Amino acid sequence: MVPPAVSPTKLDEAKAALERGAFDEALRLIEVANAETPDDTETRELYAVTHLAKAIRLSEEARKARQAALGQRKIEYEEEFQDDPQVSQTFDEALAAIEDVLRVEPTHWKARMLKASLLFRRDRESGRPQALAILHALAVAEPTNKQVPFAIRKIERPCERCGDTGFCPPCKGRGHRQFLGLDRKCERCYGRGICPACGVL
Ligand SMILES: [Zn+2]
Ligand SMILES: [Zn+2]
Questions:
Q1: What is the CATH number of domain 40-185?
Q2: Domain boundaries, the chain
Q3: How far apart are the first and last CA of the chain?
Q4: Contact criterion met (CB below 8 Å) for 180 and 164
Q5: Distance 158 CA to ligand 2 centre (A)
Q6: CA of residue 28 to ligand 2 center, whole Å
């Protein structure tokens, strides 16, 4: 007699979806798995890793959207800069994904680093003290981690190089420059438009 097939768990299904490259489906399955078995370590780890990946993807999207908006508006970077609602929303979604990671793994240091960086990048004035509070707590929890004091030094004071706008001065945050009539990638920021002195992570 053939034994009855064991039905795959939601965790198995999530792993299979990841292997297929179906990232959104994997996220949905791992959320179900985590809701069903919140105390299962493997489920929690996969939940944390996938939601961190989602947050990283969204923070990169927010950076690109801000850079594109800057290019379209042709504003000078010294001017008071306000994000488009769509850019703010992408930052908020990235922060929400980070909160998801921290809900299941409150001490996840990469998630805490990324949260500090996102808060700072979204709005320096309100984000700087929030980011520094997270980083100082991390420095206590992870005294041997060199990235933490490095990040603190980068953001603790307003940056003189870029007037604390966070935008790369030579290309004014656009990531590319006109040179001899040609549009070229800015070599100072590797085309990312972020100030090399204070841009974090
Ligand atoms: Zn700077
Ligand atoms: Zn640049």
A1: 1.25.40
A2: 40-185
A3: 58
A4: no
A5: 19
A6: 38
pLDDT tens series, the chain, 201 aa: 655 556 679 999 999 999 999 999 999 999 999 999 999 999 999 999 999 999 999 999 998 888 888 777 765 655 566 788 888 999 999 999 999 999 999 999 999 999 999 999 999 889 999 999 999 999 999 999 999 999 999 999 999 999 888 889 998 888 888 878 888 999 999 998 889 888 865
8 A C-beta contact, residue 191 and residue 185? yes
Indicate which ligand has the atom closest to the C-alpha of 170: 2
167 CA distance to ligand 2 middle (Å): 8
Ligand nearest to the CA of 161: 1
pTM of the model: 0.85
Provide the β-strand partners of residue 183. Answer: 178
Residue with tokens 């005294």: 143
